[in-house]
Amino acid sequence: MITDISFESSLATQMINFISFKRMQGYEYSNGMLVLKRFDLFLSENGCNDSVLHVEDMKRYCAETAGLKSRTRSNYYGVIRQFSIYLHTIAPQNAVLPERILPQQPQSIRFYHLNMAQIGELMTAAGELPSKNGIRSYCIRFLIGLLYSTGLRIGEALALDLRDVDTSNSTLFVRHGKFRKERIVPMSPSTLNAMEEWIERRRHYAGNESSALLIAKRNKRLSYYQMKYAFRIICNRCGLNGDPPLRLHDFRHNYACRCIAVWRETHQDVNALLPVLANAMGHVNFFATQLYLHIDAGALQKASRKFNTHIKNTLENSK
After folding, report:
1. Which of 21, 53, 115, 270 could be a cystine partner for 94, CB 3.0 to 4.6 Å?
2. How far apart are CA 142 and CA 157, in angstroms?
3. For 32-83, what is each residue's pLDDT tens digit?
């Protein structure tokens, strides 16, 4: 969680209370807080001194952000709309941002496919990062493999303590999942081997079982911003810096799609196994897991097109 930031507008207190309200619901809400800070600055800089939220102020803000990407604007307006609903519930004189203030855009699935060779390149590049004692670069290298092989969210992985690792049963205990949902995550044999190697290496840098599993230096938990900064360097070195760029969250998507692909290859009932995947990934809503069926279908279609093109070129060259 990032350090709380200050608000300056006439709605500062309401914004702070709203963030607390969202966190009580189980949201980490760091990104939402940053969106509200932008709105807070807009209100301050444009002379909006009323303690009531007006629809005119929200529409002016929407007009000022017109140059941003459609998805970014939608995310911004979603946060502002939630904030306006919260205020309206407390005091009805506060206006609510209209739900359809932006024209609807076709929804596209954000997915960055990674193969095993690319994962290997990323892990190699991570191991070559400069590190005074070597533990930070090794930790980042291990974390990339852990995310790819377990489907953990980056926040869940960084919050793991040594006590959350059960090597006897080859499982991880996620105490701080999304919406405060706890769960058990299985580890494959190769992941377990890597985990045992990492635990042995970190033993010289960390103490008791309640200490962080992933550390950047002696008794110091690896932070999200350390990982994010290092990840951008690693991606650039590996040439994985396209538009849109590779994200840490894409390891989670790849994990889910690989599970579905393996089930298809072994002729298992994918629909029957989706609840298992939903539980392993900590999805509150089962329909969120079904998204990966669409991603997997898209990958199959892409592979089919490549195969057909290959056959066509082979036949033409044989003439």
Report:
1. 53
2. 11
3. 899 999 999 999 998 888 889 998 888 888 888 888 887 788 888 889 989 9
Instruction: Judge whether 118 and 159 are in contact, CB under 8 Å.
Output: no
The domain made up of 116-246 has a fold known as hpI Integrase; Chain A (1.10.443)
Q: What gap in Å lies between CA 184 and CA 279, rounded to an integer?
A: 9
Among candidate residues 267, 297, 262, 266, the one with its CA nearest the CA of residue 277: 262
Compute the distance between CA of residue 187 and CA of residue 252 in angstroms, rounded to an integer: 14
Cis peptide before 130 (omega within 30 of 0): no
Contacts for 155 with CB less than 8 Å, ≥ 6 apart: 28, 176, 224
Ordered DSSP codes for 90-118: H-TTS----TTSS-------------HHH
Residue 139 near residue 147 (C-beta atoms within 8 A): no
Task: Give Cα 24 distance to the centre of its chain.
Answer: 20
Residue 113 confidence (pLDDT):
83
CA distance 50 to 260: 53
**Alpha-carbon distances, residue 242 vs 106, 115, 132, 235 (angstroms):** 22, 16, 30, 9
Predicted local distance difference test score (pLDDT) of residue 180 = 67
Euclidean distance between CA atoms 231 and 180, whole angstroms: 26
Task: Identify whether the C-beta of residue 225 lies closer than 8 Å to the C-beta of residue 178.
Answer: no
Q: Where are the domains of the chain?
A: 12-90, 116-246, 252-318
H helical segments located in the chain: 12-24, 30-45, 55-64, 70-90, 116-127, 135-150, 154-158, 189-202, 224-237, 250-265, 270-281, 286-318
Residue ranges of the chain with pLDDT lower than 50?
A: 1-3, 286, 298, 300, 303-304, 307, 310-311
Supply the pTM of this predicted model.
0.64
